[in-house]
Amino acid sequence: MKILVTGSAGFIGFHFVNRLVAEGYDIAGLDNINDYYDVNLKYARLAEAGIQKEGIFYNKFVRSTKNPKYRFIKLNLEDEENILKLFKAEKFDKVCNLAAQAGVRYSLKNPKAYVNSNMVGFLNVLEGCRHHQVKHLVYAISSSVYGLNEQMPFSVKDNVDHPVSLYAASKKSNELMAHAYSHLYALPATGLRFFTVYGPWGRPDMALFIFTKAILNGQPIEVYNNGNMQRDFTYIDDIVEGMYRIIQKEPHGNEEWSGLAPDPSSSAAPYKLYNIGNNNPVKLLDFIHAIEKTTGKKAIKKMMPIQSGDVVKTWADVSDLNDDFAFAPGTSVEEGISKFIRWYLNFYING
User: H or E stretch including 26?
Assistant: First the structure.
């Protein structure tokens, strides 16, 4: 089976490719290696997977030196001509779209980047899937789509029509676009709403990375909403396990679905949505305390008001994931933070 994973130089994509390659799949990884954050970390992830920076050229495949079943291509999703040529040439069985312009706060500064990558780019992926008989499209969304919703825990059956950032709106648009293609062209499509993913090789713009770096260097950390935030932190291994189970089983139309009482999480078409979160919101100050405990250093906290685009609390209802795949994330924050800090020290301090 041949699987395309977009965003394969990214945090989640890197880990998911490793899992798929270990399971024996034929993997094509795609990424544009943009400079939203330090490209050296992206190249380091690729090198860890056997893809050397010196061999990377735009729109040219390079094969992993560690596993011949993994090839990587540098390509923009917005490059419609070459994306469609790629789909035609490779005849992918399944596609996992993890490529996106990430970040809530950056969407306030550079909104066009989100339209180009998350909407135009995703449309090109949908077109590739449609015209080349892809058997299952799995695509990343975000817990940010819940926006102003205050019903806890967040359920995929909730209405999510009130986003508070363009990033969230762009990810919600992916769900709508995927449903349209699923309905029109019988494209099996599964959307995954991720909840605050963290772990080794994580993104430098995420809280755990920022806090760890500052605490180790004796620098202050900015604690927004005066610490009155809660997040459903989800360890990367749990995310990957959920994704691995889901990509193997394409959705079928829900025979009980009715337009008179529409369930947003499913459809008469082969379309499904899942939350992947830890189902256990953690207070931001408790999260910081866990970092302090692992590093043995005290944080210097600078209390700040809430930022535009932020939500106060996230909490995932993962009952559908558990019902359909007998799986629910369960790695504790303490264990996950400990593993991240070990990696951080090895990569940045000792390595």
Answer: strand 26-31
* 186 contacts: CB under 8 Å, gap ≥ 6: 269, 270
3-state secondary structure of 166: helix
Enumerate the β-bridge partners of residue 97.
Answer: 6, 139
CA end-to-end span of the chain: 36
- Answer for the pair 99, 121: CB distance below 8 angstroms, yes or no: yes
What's the token pair of residue 305?
């008001």
* Token pair in block for residue 278: 């830890």
Q: Give the single-character DSSP code of 36.
A: S
Please give the Cα distance from 180 to 195 (Å, whole number).
Answer: 25
d(CA 304, CA 220): 12
In 69-227 the beta strands, taken as DSSP E runs, fall at 70-74, 94-97, 136-140, 189-194, 197-198, 220-223
Q: With a threshold of 0.85, does the pTM exceed it?
A: yes
Which regions of the chain are under pLDDT 50?
Answer: none
| Residues taking part in catalysis | 167
Residue 50, phi-psi category: left (phi > 0), alpha (psi -120 to 50), beta (remainder): left
pLDDT tens for residues 90-146?
999 999 999 999 888 788 889 999 999 999 999 999 999 999 999 999 999 999 999
- For the chain, state the CA radius of gyration: 20
